[in-house]
Amino acid sequence: MPADPFDTLGLEPRFDIDPAKLRAAYLRRSAALHPDAAPESGGGAGGEGAGMEAEALAADVNLARQALENPESRADALLRRLGGPTREQERSLPPGFLAEILGIREEIEAAAASRDPAQIERWEQWAEDRRAQLIRAIAGKFAALVASSDPPSLRAIRIELNVWRYVERLVEQLDAGSP
Questions:
Q1: What's the pTM value of the predicted model, to 2 decimals?
Q2: Nearest to 122 by CA among 170, 74, 70
Q3: What angle in degrees, to the nearest 10, is found between the helix axes of 117-145 and 71-81?
Q4: Which of the residue ranges 55-59, 77-81, 132-136, 170-174 would you say has the lowest mean pLDDT?
């Protein structure tokens, strides 16, 4: 299992991370791992093994930053930390969502095939708006958890993340068909 990105960067586990705090935590951890800041962890007295360990830690810090910069992966990491279900454990979607998304997928495929910039732009805007709605919904659900992490609330967050993943796949499909 990958390291917890919140622990790796020393950040409070929350969905609404201040980008400036994320950047500061990343820079602080990266600087602490730099060979000039800690020569014993580089190729000096610590030997090659210590240098490899420092490289692995630096890679973890980079992965943690990437995970927390992306709201979808940040939500996934927070849900995992709170003991919520993984994608593999909970694949549910809201009632009616699949029927809705199948119709949308057909329209997106037609727009991608047409290579009409106006149609593609319309669907890109739809995807951007839907992504923003999902981010707000998930942020609200995490905020409502406060101190308790009850399984039904965590499951509801996973279902929203499942919807988000579908929307992201549609965006990828649209991007693939862009001129």
A1: 0.81
A2: 170
A3: 30
A4: 170-174
Look-up of token digits 């820079």 = 27
- Give every CB contact of residue 25 below 8 A, 6+ residues apart in sequence: 9, 10, 11
Closest CA to 32 of 45, 43, 21, 42: 42
In terms of Cα–Cα distance, which of 52, 51, 57, 56 is closest to 35?
Answer: 51
pLDDT grade for 169, boundaries at 50, 70 and 90: confident
Q: Is the pLDDT confidence value at 88 over 80?
A: yes
- Count Cβ atoms below 10 Å from residue 77 Cβ, excluding itself: 21
Cα–Cα distance for residue pair 43/112, rounded to 1 Å: 52
